Amino acid sequence: MLYAYPILLVRDDNGTFLVTCPDLPEVTTFAENQPDARVRARDAIEEAIAARIARREDVPTPSLREGPLSAPLSEQTMLKATLWREMRAAGLRKADLARRLGWSGPQVNRLFDLNHASRLAQFDAAFGALGLNVTPDIVMEPSDELASLPLQALVQSRNGPMDVWNELVRRHGIAQETNTIVLCSMYQRPERAKALTGAHLDGIETSRAELRAIRDAMDQFLDRYFPARKRGGER
């Protein structure tokens, strides 16, 4: 389930909304409507979490999960916040974690930097050093907002790059699965192949076309955020 912090909306005199977060009292922002409130609240909450980590303060666990009046956070933010909570609960400091991992101070600092994209293997190692066998159960579910966007709108979305990339990866997996299902559906029984029909062929071509479109969208996304990247060998 995608973790999210609850938010409260209070209409202001000028028609905008005052947005606050009960779990993080320091969070205050303004929005034009409910979808805008979720985006702005997410940004404000991530700033608050980063500030708390910088001040060596506790970061509260969200009091609810995904809902209409909540601000869903990225997988990276939740992993970093959860790792911070677990480290403090164990009575450890960054220096202690660095010694357990055999890492340098800057390497550990990046694990708690919300602007740095840490690898999942690094999180696994860090949680393991705290005596946890697996990364906490933070499973990304598709965001309704992103899942409803056409590919081109998704690539140009102002949502967090990690969230957009996760949605592209999700669609890529779905397209591949659909292609497999179409191929398997050409046979009524495993032991006896049936003749290909026009419908089956059309289904395969549609699925492959969708997969190509998603891969093109992934290339556009990478070009947008990594314009100097080397092309070739990525697919």
Summarize the structure.
By secondary structure, this protein is mostly helical. It is 52% helix and 9% strand.
Count of strand segments: 6
N-to-C series of helices and strands:
EEEEHEEHHHHHHHH
Distance between the termini: 29 Å
Counting DSSP H or I runs of 4 or more residues, the number of helices is 9
Task: Report the mean per-residue pLDDT as an integer.
Answer: 80
What percentage of residues falls in helices of 4 or more residues? Answer: 40-55%
Largest sheet: 3 strands, antiparallel
* Cα radius of gyration in angstroms: 22 Å
Strand order of the largest sheet: 5-1-6
- β-strand percent reads 5-15%
- What spatial form do the alpha-carbon principal axes imply? globular
Keywords:
single chain; 235 residues; mainly alpha; 3-stranded antiparallel β-sheet; 9 helices; 6 strands; globular; disordered C terminus
What would your notes on this structure say?
- The protein is mainly alpha-helical.
- It is built from 9 helices and 6 strands, in the order E-E-E-E-H-E-E-H-H-H-H-H-H-H-H.
- It has a 3-stranded antiparallel sheet with strand order 5-1-6.
- Helix 3 packs across helix 4 and helix 8 packs antiparallel against helix 9 (198-225).
- The two termini are 29 Å apart.
- The model is unreliable at 187-194 and 231-235 (pLDDT under 50).
